[in-house]
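Data card: per-record layout.
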Amino acid sequence: MNIIVLTGCLGRDAELKTFGDTKVANFSIAVKDFKKGEDASFWMNVTCFGKTAEVVEKYTKKGSKIGVSGKIQVEKYTAKDGTEKTKTFVNADKVELLDSKKDNQSKAKDEPTEEVEYEYVNYPPLPIVDLECPF
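The structure for this 135-residue chain is written out next.
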């Protein structure tokens, strides 16, 4: 099962691109990682699509608090210098804006106010499965 849920703060404004009719937002979040009493953070790149991408680009900015859920994806590619590289990121299917409504709308303050509705799904509990690990 490939499921990840993270909360953190945007490290930069979301970058929105359009490919045909599909909108794609890319951004990174700083996620707190509590290890043995230490306060540490790590960075995770996130990609989302469609209406979710538009909402992220419109209502967030660097420093915005955000929650994402989706799956981890790993892509391998060859860099310009010929070396093999690996890119790990979250392909987010759900995004939740965690700042106040006022903070979320401050990025688009010159634009008319738009209500954004989110659909919350109450999933049934997952069955416990005894899996054998390959290591």
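Known properties of this structure: The domain at 4-108 is CATH 2.40.50.140 (OB fold (Dihydrolipoamide Acetyltransferase, E2P)). DSSP finds two helices and six strands in the chain.

See the next section for split statistics.
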